[in-house]
Amino acid sequence: MTLAHARRGGGLGYDGSVTTEPEQTYERASVAQRLGGIGIDWVLCLVISGAIFPANNLADASGIEKLLFAGQPLATLGIWALQHFVLVATLGMTYGHRFLKLRVVREDGAKYPGFVKAAIRTVLLALVIPAVVWDSEGRGLHDRAAGTRLVRLADPA
Fold first, then answer.
1. What is the DSSP string of 50-118?
2. Model confidence over 21-45: pLDDT tens digits?
3. ∠ CA(76), CA(78), CA(79), 5° rounding?
């Protein structure tokens, strides 16, 4: 669906208007930026998981090992999925995206991805395989399925 089509109210099953941003061209995020963003988010989730869901098998670990590996693995994944879903749906970016000046945008030009697109994107990203398979435009299959793109934010002029 194109931006013009969405503005005319041509969305499937939706008769209202779509809140859109002015027509913009975005520079796509590089692979290094994508990996950096998810890495930042993952480390934050490891710390949270270690504090809330500590594992008991790290008695001999050093301080940094306890910090990064003290949490239950599935709890870490759950925390990551929850923060990714909520932040992308409502703000269009996670903490890692914000730090690296990235944003998730919708193909139809709406300002924020919304809950449905964020849910699709989060589930497929958590499965890993769709995220490591790219098309000719450098978009992961999770972005194509959700109708989103990860782009670089423009530097203020």
1. HHHSB-S--TT--HHHHHHH-B-HHHHHHHHHHHHHHHHHHHS--HHHHHTTEEEEETT-BSS-HHHHH
2. 555 667 888 888 989 999 999 999 9
3. 65
